[in-house]
Structure formats: C-alpha cells, structure tokens
Amino acid sequence: MSIQLYGISNCSSVQKAKIWLNQNQYDFVFIDYKKQAPTSQLLERWLEQVPLDQLVNRQGTTWKQLSDDEKLQFEQSSQAILMLIAKPTLLKRPTLVKNNQILVGFHATKYLSFLSP
C-alpha cells in the first residue's frame, strides 16, 4: 500500500498527521509543496474526487494576500489549477493519498477509516 502525505513541513496540521502516521506505523512518503509543487495532472485527479472549495485554503495568509482579480481566478477550475501550481500554499493541508484516493485535512478518526484495508 502506497501512502503519500502532501503539505508543508512547518504546518501544524501536517506535523500532527506525520506524528499520527508514525505512531500508527504507517509507511508514507511526504511531499513538501514548497520543494515540489503539485502538477496540473495531480490537481485534476484530486478535483475529480473533491470540490475546489475543499482543496483551497481560504483562511490562510496566502489567500488573504491575493488581489480580488486573483481570487476571481478560482471561479474556473482551469485557472485555479494554475494558481495552485504557482502558489501551492493555497492548498489545504495536509492531503493524504492512498491508491489514488484522497483525504483533505487531518482528523485521526477519518485517517483510521481511510487507511483501513
């Protein structure tokens, strides 16, 4: 079973997810958005599973620093994907991936059921 955890190293939610995965003995690969930006193909796959609003972090500093014109780009998924590639800190964190299925955010009970065989 291949598990990937996407996020940013210094994000507290990502750190909690990493700790939980390690404590529960799950092997995973961590992908840091700051070191490896998501691809359009990856984001398109994710958007097949969850709505754009579930992927975009509208509470964070990066969102608040966007101009009104930049925020309007999130009306269309193709434009949003370009923005998310350019500014991956706009993605909610963490995103857990197992067998090409995703779970956005960290909740221990959801992780347990998501990762159960």
- Mean pLDDT, all residues: 94
Q: Quick one: biggest sheet?
A: 4 strands, mixed
The number of helices is: 7
Q: Reading side by side through the largest sheet, how are the strands ordered?
A: 2-1-3-4
The helix content, as a percent range, equals 40-55%
The CATH architecture classification is: 3-Layer(aba) Sandwich
Radius of gyration: 14 Å
Poorly predicted tracts of residues: none
Please state the structural category. alpha+beta
DSSP E strands, number = 4
User: Regarding CATH, which class?
Assistant: Alpha Beta
CA distance, first residue to last residue: 9 Å
Q: What form results from the Cα inertia axes? A: globular
Number of domains: 1
- Pattern of helices and strands: EHEHHHHHEEH
Beta-strand residue percentage: 5-15%
- CATH H level, superfamily name: Glutaredoxin
**What's the CATH topology label?**
Glutaredoxin
In short:
It contains 7 helices and 4 strands.
Write the layout of secondary structure elements.
Elements: E1 3-7, H1 12-23, E2 29-32, H2 40-49, H3 52-55, H4 61-64, H5 68-72, H6 77-86, E3 95-98, E4 101-104, H7 108-115
Parallel strand pairs: 1-2
Antiparallel strand pairs: 1-3, 3-4
Descriptive account of the structure:
By secondary structure, this protein is α+β, with helices and mostly antiparallel strands. It has a single domain, classed as Glutaredoxin, CATH 3.40.30.10. It is built from 7 helices and 4 strands. The chain has helices at 12-23, 40-49, 52-55, 61-64, 68-72, 77-86, 108-115, and strands at residues 3-7, 29-32, 95-98, 101-104. The chain has a 4-stranded mixed beta sheet with strand order 2-1-3-4, covered by helices on one side. Strand 1, helix 1 and strand 2 form a beta-alpha-beta unit. It is globular, with a radius of gyration of 14 Å. 22% of the residues are buried. The mean pLDDT is 94.
